[in-house]
Amino acid sequence: MMVQRFRLASYNLQKCVGLDLRRRPGRSLQVIDAISADLVVLQEADKRLPPRPAALPHDLVEDHGWHILPFGQVDGSLGWHGNAMLARPGIELLSTAHIELPGLEPRGAIRADLQTPLGPLRVVGTHLGLLRRNRHRQLASIMRHLDRLSDLPTVIAGDFNEWGSMRPLQAITHGMTILKSAPSYPAPRPVAGLDRFALSKDLRFEKPKVHQARPARVASDHLPVWVDLLAA
């Protein structure tokens, strides 16, 4: 009997500027499409300066069959603080929220409650800060936000920016497990597992994987990562 699964990916686009210093949104979408994910959580999906226009154009994304979850602005930013989510048809959006994060750098997280083929699922997308103390405060803010909500199977996905031990961050994500991940940064020769998933304990999953097929090694400084969630 085939086990039903839901594939969730996370990818830091680096604003669609590859290691060849060329901004090629079509190449970024080629990488995303190759993962065959049901939902993709993106970081650095918008350009940096206000009004932060989308680095990955809306019409191009939709032409590839993706639905852009409404965290940004029509014809403007794709998401919020560079965080965005793309979903395949058949996933119902129940609610969304922006999560303000502390720190010297402007940072934020996004949350989507979804109805998926596996049932209800809550997904938080984030890009944590460069300073360790800020990462701890930011993850704690996300957990406080989640603690105020009704219980749902939950995933936090994104660029955790953590080069060292995950133990301090794991201590903050009470009731969730930060999964071990293969190195995804830097893309040409990865040495650090910066891109991660944290899962609530009611979710079944297979070991996360890193997508390395061409042109992923040049499309961004990060490789995308993905995890298959399994039916209970």
Given the helix and strand composition, which structural class is it? alpha+beta
How would you describe the shape?
globular
How is the biggest beta sheet arranged? 7 strands, mixed
Approximately how much helix is present in the residues?
Answer: 10-25%
Whole-number mean pLDDT: 94
Order of helices and strands: EHEHEEEEEHEHEEEEHE
Number of helices: 5
Distance between the termini: 14 Å
Say how many strands there are. Answer: 13
Précis, in short:
Helix content is 18%, strand content 31%.
Task: Provide the fold topology.
Elements: E1 5-12, H1 25-34, E2 39-43, H2 58-63, E3 67-68, E4 84-87, E5 92-101, E6 107-116, E7 119-127, H3 132-147, E8 154-159, H4 167-172, E9 176-178, E10 195-200, E11 204-205, E12 209-210, H5 216-219, E13 225-230
Parallel strand pairs: 1-2, 7-8
Antiparallel strand pairs: 1-13, 2-4, 3-4, 5-6, 6-7, 8-10, 9-10, 11-13, 12-13
Give structural attributes.
6-stranded mixed sheet, 5 helices, 7-stranded mixed sheet, alpha+beta, 13 strands, 232 residues
